[in-house]
Amino acid sequence: MASVLKNCPAPAKLNLFLHVTGRRADGYHLLQTVFQLLDVGDSLDFSLRDDGVIRRVTEVEGVPEDSDLVVRAARLLQQAVPDKRGAGADIAVRKRLPMGGGLGGGSSDAATTLITLNHLWQAGLDREQLMALGLRLGADVPFFIFGRNAFAEGVGEALAEVRTPKCWYVVLEPGVQVPTAAIFSSPELTRDSEPVRITDFPEAPTRFGKNDLQAVAEKLFPPVSEALKWLRQYGDARMTGSGACVFCAFAQERDADAVVQAAQSTGHPQWKAWKARSIERHPLSHLLKSKSQNSSGMLSQDRMTGNTVV
Ligand SMILES: C[C@@](CO)(OP(=O)(O)O)[C@H](O)COP(=O)(O)OP(=O)(O)OC[C@H]1O[C@@H](n2ccc(N)nc2=O)[C@H](O)[C@@H]1O
Ligand SMILES: Nc1ncnc2c1ncn2[C@@H]1O[C@H](COP(=O)(O)OP(=O)(O)O)[C@@H](O)[C@H]1O
């Protein structure tokens, strides 16, 4: 068994649409969304220690070591597996994804940590057990452990695999951080979108629905609105998650390249644009075994909220 794993990917996600359909008794919002994995993300290195210590060995601006989702994920796994409490790790985190960008960077880092340390420590948790652990860190974490593009309900933890278009995305970072809590706590947020069924959008979820968080984010953070206005000239531009990033899909890589280039000469030095390819599976998926998966890799019916998987 290896004691070091380098360059472990933590891919970004997009929310191709995001509907707020209600609110739980504890105030958390009920969502329906399609999560799309991208081939761009953060990258982490893991070196095993045998003294039970978990350290982050790189600086992450604005995130103290003890509150980093990576460190919290590692400690959570350590606590969950009693005979692994002597197992530790040094973890290097190379951030590529902006914080408060709606790309799920922190959640993806946490998921990569759970998947990789479960493997390196030989902790033996299966996919479902790791997803349940991940949910304690954030609503997006189970999706990254699930490892496939997914229709999500609840707060994001009820997942069903969904087929999405193979395409290129241009992601535009407007240069602001949007705190998720600020959007969900807004009195202007609409919370009554009609629930949809997975069969409503079998072919083209890039064009389906809307992002209910977008109007509030645009109002509170005008740079989000400006970025959307600019990107809309090239297609159906949307915000991902609670923002701040906005995105647009392209069938051809050269079209995505042209938009990335155009974004660099708009007189918005704070903008950062890049392209990413849609991917079907999390690159670390092979490190996990799933109890309830059938041979085709789909989740079994009882976890799929009764919907038919595309
Ligand atoms: C909106 C989404 C969509 O994928 O992603 P991001 O844009 O953050 O990437 C997620 O639901 C983000 O979920 P999660 O990562 O758990 O959100 P957090 O930042 O922990 O939530 C901050 C606060 O927002 C509120 N919140 C969050 C999620 C939710 N479904 N309902 C809520 O009301 C809660 O008050 C919570 O304390
Ligand atoms: N490893 C991490 N990477 C990014 N953010 C982290 C990390 N650990 C904790 N956080 C906290 O989580 C917040 C949300 O970050 P992130 O998940 O990247 O954005 P979003 O939820 O908008 O997709 C950050 O502002 C930061 O305070």
What does this structure look like?
This protein has 310 residues and is α+β, with helices and mostly antiparallel strands. The protein has 2 domains: 4-163, Ribosomal Protein S5, domain 2 (2-Layer Sandwich); 168-279, 2-Layer Sandwich (Alpha-Beta Plaits). 25% of the residues lie in helices and 26% in strands. It contains 8 helices and 10 strands. The chain has helices at residues 69-80, 105-120, 127-135, 141-146, 180-184, 214-220, 222-231, 253-263; strands at residues 4-23, 29-49, 54-56, 88-94, 150-153, 158-161, 168-173, 238-239, 246-250, 272-279. Strands 1, 2, 3, 4, 5, 6, 7, 8, 9 and 10 form a 10-stranded mixed beta sheet that branches. A hairpin with a 5-residue loop joins strand 1 and strand 2 (29-49). Helix 1 (69-80) packs parallel to helix 2 and helix 6 crosses helix 7. The longest helix has 16 residues, at 105-120. The protein starts with a strand and ends in a 31-residue tail after the last strand. The model is unreliable at 294-310 (pLDDT under 50). The structure holds 4-diphosphocytidyl-2-C-methyl-D-erythritol 2-phosphate and adenosine-5'-diphosphate.
